[in-house]
C-alpha cells in the first residue's frame, strides 16, 4: 500500500501524532501529500511542543480507542497509521 498516493476524499489519521516519531511523520506527509491529517494522542509521552503548525492538521487529545472505531465505521475514506 502506498502511503503517498491516496484517494481525493481520503484523510490520514495518525495515532501518537504528538510524539517525536508522529510529529516527524506529519511533517513528511505534509510535504508529500495534500491530504488533511488528524492526530489523536493521549499525550502520555507526546507534547504540544511537537505540534506541526498547519491548517491541514487537527490534533485531538483523547484515548485512541474511542476514535479509531469511529473512523473504521465512517463512510468517509481514511488511512490510519497507528504509532501507539
Would you write up a description of this structure?
There is one protein chain. The chain has one domain: NAD(P)-binding Rossmann-like Domain (Rossmann fold, 3-Layer(aba) Sandwich), CATH 3.40.50. The chain is 27% helix and 24% strand. It contains two helices and four strands, in the order βαββαβ. It has a four-stranded parallel β-sheet, sandwiched between helices. Strand 1, helix 1 and strand 2 form a beta-alpha-beta unit.
CATH fold description: Rossmann fold
The poorly predicted ranges are: 1-6
What is the H level of CATH, i.e. the homologous superfamily?
NAD(P)-binding Rossmann-like Domain
CATH C-level class: Alpha Beta
What would you say the CATH architecture is? 3-Layer(aba) Sandwich
Query: What structural class do you assign from the helix and strand content?
Result: alpha/beta
Mean pLDDT: 82
Describe how the helices and strands are arranged.
Layout: E1 11-15, H1 20-32, E2 37-41, E3 57-61, H2 64-73, E4 78-82
Parallel strand pairs: 1-2, 1-4, 2-3
How is this structure best summarized?
The protein is of the alpha/beta class and 84 residues long.
Write a concise keyword list for the protein shown above.
84 residues; alpha/beta; 27% helix; disordered N terminus
Amino acid at each position: 500500500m502506498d502511503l503517498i498516493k491516496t484517494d481525493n476524499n481520503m484523510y490520514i489519521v495518525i495515532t501518537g501524532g504528538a510524539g517525536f516519531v508522529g510529529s516527524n511523520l506529519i511533517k513528511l506527509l505534509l510535504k508529500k501529500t495534500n491530504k488533511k491529517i488528524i492526530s489523536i494522542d493521549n499525550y502520555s509521552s507526546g507534547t504540544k511542543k511537537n505540534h506541526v503548525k498547519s491548517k491541514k492538521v487537527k490534533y485531538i487529545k483523547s484515548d485512541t480507542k474511542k476514535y479509531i472505531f469511529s473512523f473504521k465505521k465512517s463512510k468517509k475514506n481514511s488511512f490510519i497509521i497507528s504509532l501507539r
